[in-house]
Amino acid sequence: MIELKIPQKQIEKLRQLGKVGENNLFCFLGFTFNLQTKELHDILQENASVKTLEVKDPTMHQQITELLYKYAHANRKEQTGKLVKFKNFPGGYAYENAFNRRAAEPIAKVFGSCPGDLGEAAKLIGGKLLGHGESSVEVTALEGIPITYILWTDEELPPSANILFDETASNYLNVEDLSGLTELATWRLTFAKTLLKKI
What we know:
The structure is a single chain. It is built from 6 helices and 9 strands. The chain has 2 domains: 2-71, no CATH class; 83-195, TATA-Binding Protein (2-Layer Sandwich), CATH 3.30.310. Helix 3 packs across helix 6 and helix 5 (116-124) packs across helix 6. The two termini are 20 Å apart. The strands form 2 sheets. It has a 5-stranded antiparallel beta sheet. The protein is α+β, with helices and mostly antiparallel strands. The protein has helices at 8-17, 43-46, 58-71, 92-111, 116-124, 175-195; strands at residues 2-3, 25-28, 31-34, 39-42, 83-85, 128-129, 135-142, 145-154, 157-166. The model has no long low-confidence stretch (mean pLDDT 91). The relative contact order is 0.18.
């Protein structure tokens, strides 16, 4: 557990953007953020029957704080269902190579030899199975920002992964922050895989 330093004004906006009940919990990617106490809990760790070391990387907590702060400045927009690549967002082309290296390639590397684990890992952070490629999932990184991961495998080629977004995702975050959010989602998926046999 760690306390995130987010101003009260943004806390109230998070309450409007997310599906927050009477328990004041804003849930995302296997984390719960208590909007009253401002405490962040890692549910993946807490639900594991065999405990691993709790992640206490201050850089990660700072990244989460900044992402939630910026997300809190967005206005809710109805999803269209039209999926687009990261490079299709304004400014996305300039970040595409780094985005693929940090967000897509780890998925191919970690799940390429065991595609079925992608779906199981996604379920641990609130995701759901889809029907594309060898394996595919949709993970709601933050309310209104679903991320679609598609894993491709071939006996003659190394595994690869594609990441798609609803075209409205850039309404919530700019491409730099959307890239950071997707990297966080990828990290949570790969972390969830390590817990599959421990939970």
